[in-house]
Write a structure and sequence with these properties.
The chain is α/β, with parallel strands linked by helices. The protein has 19 helices and 14 strands. Residues about 315-320, about 485-495 and about 500-505 have low confidence and may be disordered. Pfam families: DUF87 (PF01935).
Length: about 500
């Protein structure tokens, strides 16, 4: 299911759409001088995508904490130890809570250390919690500078390493980096180079205009246009936005920044004598100086972790949906899984992506109740990949096969059930192509290795009849498939290496 979000208006008055799934796979870079509307753009993107994907915002100025009131983001004040921030980040991924890391009040080195610890916790989460997450880093040149500054080398290496992991290696872990910077020249090249989508706003320096034009594939003579862009106007390019440079104007937002642009206020009329009395009046001798107000103390780490562990409740539910009967709900979830797997490319997507799509479809159909967690979804997906009908799931024999497969490794369950279904229906043994698709691969050699491994562990016994057709037997169930149609290569024969069409020579 393709999910697009509305970013505003494109040239010609058409809606400016962003493909959210493509963004999660290809990352985004935003450039614009101070006052060009970068924060407004990020806020629009976060608001539009909040219902569909988990979010984490690294906020150096505290501008995005207002998302908590409208969209339920958890605000994490960074004035705590690095170990606490890593632990909080790990819990964030586990419980799928959108957060804002508020770095306001820290110096540059403190911000870099805290951001590195938090991003490291997101990156090092367990594989079971690699759900898709949009990670937005505002003022990215602070955390991934191109040159050494006033901070220590240790803090710079920690922060730069965390940003590099986010942009270079985060995709496989479900982390989609979105970085915004005032100047491309100040941002480390290995961080900027990993983005495939670009939104370029107003900039004035020749070197920044030239780099922006190069990234967008524009002529150097066209780079002057970036100097004339209005506030909130950007030029977009990338697989999630447009295949050609596309000017767009960012739409309105629902939440407001805490720090807006300065506004002109008329000066109050004052006489010279009054001003002198106000400014130079001596303080009373017996009056102590006014104490400097202390910033509010951030909540304890234990309170943050306890809040993360609580089930996430919607901020303001419009109306309560009556709970669906269990049988009807199970049938609806089975139908959703069948619809997902009906897409030819669904078998080759990571389980975390399919799980995210499954949850969105459940919300659309208002199934209600607690959604299955990731391990339970893996079990349902293995059963659905076996292509057993909903009526077959009611049979005692099929239920016995499903219960036995629960004790197998996760990557073998779907293959075992595929063979069990064929045996139960007295159908031919699944071929290499069918087994490969079930495990999310297009390689017949990998399918043969999986079958050989299952035979080595005793889950399946493979044999061939006198015509050379493969037969799979399930000794624990006492079932056997019919002979596979056509001759098959013996499992002991090593597969010929597959040629890489993109290899040199």
């Amino acid at each position: 299911m393709k999910i697009t979000i509305d970013m505003g208006l494109a040239a010609g008055g058409a809606p400016a759409l962003m493909d959210l799934e493509e963004l999660l796979a290809t990352r985004l870079l935003v450039q614009g001088n101070s006052g060009s509307g970068k924060s407004h753009l990020l806020r629009r993107m976060l608001e539009q995508s909040a219902p569909y994907v988990q979010q984490a915002i690294v906020d150096p100025e505290g501008d995005f904490v207002t998302l908590a009131d409208r969209f339920g983001h958890l605000v994490v004040d960074a004035q705590r130890s690095e170990a606490d921030l890593q632990r909080i980040a790990s819990r964030v991924r586990q419980h799928r809570v959108s957060v804002v890391l508020n770095l306001e009040g820290l110096d540059a080195e403190g911000q870099m250390r805290c951001a590195a610890a938090f991003l490291g916790g997101l990156f090092d989460a367990d594989r079971d919690y690699w759900y898709p997450m949009l990670v937005v880093v505002d003022e990215a040149q602070v955390f991934a500078p191109s040159a050494a500054g006033d901070v220590s080398d240790e803090a710079r290496k920690l922060s730069l390493g965390a940003m590099t992991n986010l942009m270079c290696r985060g995709r496989k872990r479900g982390l989609a980096g979105v970085v915004a910077t005032q100047r491309l020249a100040k941002l480390a090249k290995n961080v900027a180079a990993e983005a495939s989508n670009f939104l370029m706003g107003r900039t004035f320096l020749d070197i920044d205009m030239a780099r922006a034009a190069d990234l967008l594939g524009m002529d150097r003579r066209q780079s002057e246009m970036f100097r004339d862009l209005e506030r909130g106007h950007f030029v977009a390019l990338g697989p999630a936005l447009s295949r050609r440079p596309l000017p767009m104007r960012i739409g309105a937002v629902q939440t407001a920044e805490r720090s807006g642009s300065p506004k002109l206020v008329p000066m109050a009329p004052q006489t010279l004598e009054n001003v002198q009395d106000l400014i130079f009046q001596p303080a009373p001798q017996d009056e102590p100086p006014a104490p400097r107000p202390r910033p509010p103390r951030p909540p304890a780490t234990a309170d943050i972790l306890a809040q993360l562990a609580q089930p996430r409740q919607p901020a303001a539910p419009a109306e309560t949906t009556p709970e669906m009967p269990k049988e009807e709900r199970e049938a609806a979830m089975a139908a959703i899984l069948r619809d997902i797997l009906a897409d030819e490319d669904a078998a080759f997507h990571p389980v975390a992506i399919l799980y995210q799509d499954f949850l969105v479809r459940c919300r659309i159909q208002r199934l209600g109740g607690d959604a299955p967690d990731l391990p339970a979804f893996r079990r349902r997906l293995a059963v659905a990949k076996a292509d057993a009908s909903f009526e077959a799931e009611k049979g005692e024999e099929w239920r016995r096969a499903v219960e036995f497969s629960a004790g197998l490794p996760e990557d073998l369950q779907s293959v075992f059930l595929l063979v069990a279904r064929a045996a139960l229906e007295n159908a031919p043994c699944p071929g290499d192509a069918e087994v490969a698709r079930t495990i999310g691969s297009r390689s017949p050699a990998r399918a043969r290795r999986i079958m050989a491994y299952m035979e080595e562990k005793g889950f399946v016994i493979l044999r061939t009849d006198f015509r050379g057709n493969r037969i799979a037997a399930l000794p624990d169930l006492g079932w056997e498939t019919a002979p596979q149609d056509g001759r098959v290569t013996a499992p002991a024969t090593p597969a010929a290496p597959e040629r890489d069409l993109f290899a040199a020579g």
